[in-house]
Amino acid sequence: MTWWTLSFYLLVLLAAGSVFSVKKDAYPDRGALFDRQGWSIWIGIFAATLLKSVSAIVLWSPWSFRNQPAIVPIYFLAEISVFVGVLLFYRLITGQPFTLLGFSSERLGIRLLFAMRWIIGVFFVLYCVFYIFLLFQSVEVSQAWLMRLYRNRDLVTALMHFFEKMWGLPSVVIPILFMVVLRPFAEEIVFRGLLYGPIRRKSDPIMAALISSFLFTLADGSIASPHLLTGVLSAYLYERTESLFPGMILHGLLNLGSVVYYFGGKNVISVVVRKTEAGWMTLLLAALFVGVVILYRVLRKKGYGWGGTVSIS
């Protein structure tokens, strides 16, 4: 995220906070988890500002880690501190349990199974489209597209390359945990947990999903990223399951793709290799999707479900 994109992002956050803080509640109270999230939108705005400003200051300062490797530990420490700070800030300001954000374990298994149908289904469609594209496009066009896709994962690959160069291959587990676990955890708390509910009360679930996802996309620093669509899906799963875990899983799996790219070496831009991988992944995901759908329906018929609101106690 460059300085001008950060400035634009902060202006949009300020505008969203100003509009929805003065707007009256519009969506009827149906007793859902989000109707019990009584905090102001400004808590989420502050957390979103802090989350991206700290990383932008560290990464896009004159001491960029590409030239000064010592910045990497500072970057990790800064982001982890923000992760912890957001949670402490929530508890301090609201005094409410974390379950109200969407961390209840009640009937979590069936709720996650519901979400996994969508998550696996989305990845199946993506791999299917990817395979068809590589199958019918010329080698030159496919090669250029794979190169562009690889370059878009610059931050993740740069972090992993730094750790491998400095401390050896086993050390890359640190950036993997950071990108696949910690970052999805923090960003889902902010953009779904803290922002979705207040916006939803002032508009409706569809508008809340679109706005929170748009803010999430701006935070990534690129409108061309897939975060708008994945953010909408995360918001939908959050609405239906009243849990942040499905969005964290989806977010983590998407970031895991960058890790796979790193370990792929030269094969990541090989049209033949990627086409073969995409074909097998499409078949595997299709089988998983059918299995999860069948299991979910069997459990529903046996009475497993979450018809009422999820407890926050």
Q: Would you kindly provide a brief summary of this structure?
A:
With 313 residues, the chain is an all-alpha fold. Helix content is 73%, strand content 0%.
Q: H/E element string?
A: HHHHHHHHHHHH
Low-confidence stretches: none
Give the overall shape, derived from the CA principal axes: globular
> Hey, roughly how much beta strand do the residues contain?
under 5%
Radius of gyration: 21 Å
Query: How many angstroms separate the termini?
Result: 39 Å
State the secondary-structure class.
mainly alpha
Number of separate helices: 12
Whole-number average pLDDT?
84
Profile the largest sheet.
none
Helix content: over 70%
Summed up, the domain count is: 1
Compute the number of strand runs: 0
Keywords: Hydrolase, Membrane, Metalloprotease, Protease, Transmembrane, Transmembrane helix
Domain CAAX prenyl protease 2/Lysostaphin resistance protein A-like: 172-256
GO biological process, one term: proteolysis
Protein name: CPBP family intramembrane metalloprotease
